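User: Okay, second chain of the day. Same drill as before: sequence in, structure tokens out.
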Amino acid sequence: MKILMVSPEGPPLSRAGAIVDVLDALPRELRTRGHEVSVALPFYRAIREDSSFKERDTGVTLDVRVGDKTYIAEYLEGRSASGVQLFLIRCDEFFDRDGIYGEHGELYEDNAARFIFLSKAAVELARRLTPTPQILHLHDWPPALVPVFVHGHRLPFSTVLTIHRLAEQGSFWGLDFSLTNLHERFFTLRGVEFFGRMNFLKAGILFADKITTVSESYKREILTPEGGCGLEGVLRENAHKLVGILHGADYTRWNPETDRLLPANYNIESLEGKQICRDALLAELQLAPTPQGPVYGMVTRVVEEKGFEILMPALDRLLSDDVRLIILGEGDPAYETALAVAARKFAGKFAYQRNYDARLAHLIEAGMDISLIPSRIEPAGLSAMYNLKYGALPVARAAGGIHEIIEDYDPTVDRGYGFLCYEYSTEAFWDSIKRAREVFRNQELWTVLVRRAMSRDFSWEAAAQRYEQLYAELVGAGEKAAA
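Assistant: Same drill. Structure tokens below.
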């Protein structure tokens, strides 16, 4: 099958986030299964300035109308590190900026225009590719208007929309609808309108042929008022199109046995390299090499949905113990400031780095003993998959994909390899931290659990097979309809 994926993020961007990992691993896995897969994404400044990435100009330029203005879309071509064909959509007025969605904690005011342009430019690319794509697979809200344009212009593509983060929906002033150049009949309850505003994700849910979420548990959550972020009614009405597919971990990049970014490699049989990585991590961040209490770590977005509202009240208690803590990630300026203050207060015990660094991210995975995942929303739980592979036992709230990844440790039956809490509160999460801390005191038992965790396999093969079946259903249905 011929598939074009459209995403706001993907390789060669090197930043923390599940979408980048997915857009690297899923196309590669589908290619190994014999499918022709390409990825389209904006040509951001970060990509242009990446000296390791080589792109070429295809010579194709198109005029794209966004409201009353016309912008020129230039199409560049390149290859990801794994060989997947990339199409970079260039429009410097929209994408030659320091950020992806905004800067300094503020979203760009013209995001509606930017991603309407992306959706239109991607549709025009699909119309001109040879061979013609059968499937347009959209990721999250920025390209979620693609199914609307496909429907409005009666184009011969089947569309799949994957929801990675339901909380981010692309909601804009109703007046921004004029930028789509769609007929006013689309700005209704059965179209892009949602409580007087234009909602990209709601439109994609209505018009896509299939909707996927990144785990079966998250699929169930988003159908409820607690997890639906206001769209649960729309999702329930379209539940017949909704499929939960647990995404996989990219073990070509995240594997302690082969990871080139580590000072020492290790595997489930030989764990000596993990201690070397632990020592290197503490030395690099100038944290105390002793006492021998656990090293906690987080590589994450520093935002409320990742659980910082319940973690921050416990920070002083945590750091008063014989522990070290490392957090890598950016997000909400208020949380960033609070973490920076705490790092100064607990110098030698706590290190916080805002700017993402791939080498440090891998070193944290390998060097920490315990990962903290207090998330209120954790759709896929990719970070937990990486934690397990590197032998870092997670303390996590049971949300979304976490249910399918982490088994709570139960000493009465000697099962499990993580420490779950089921209530979203500081005290509940603190109780799980204390459970992990007590088990860590028994290093012989801890090593057993580490090996148990590292033996878990969440490779992309199963997820790619599910997507392959989904695509085949749509292509078969389209061919039957055409006949």
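The first strand starts at residue 2 and ends at 6.

User: Thanks, on to the next one.
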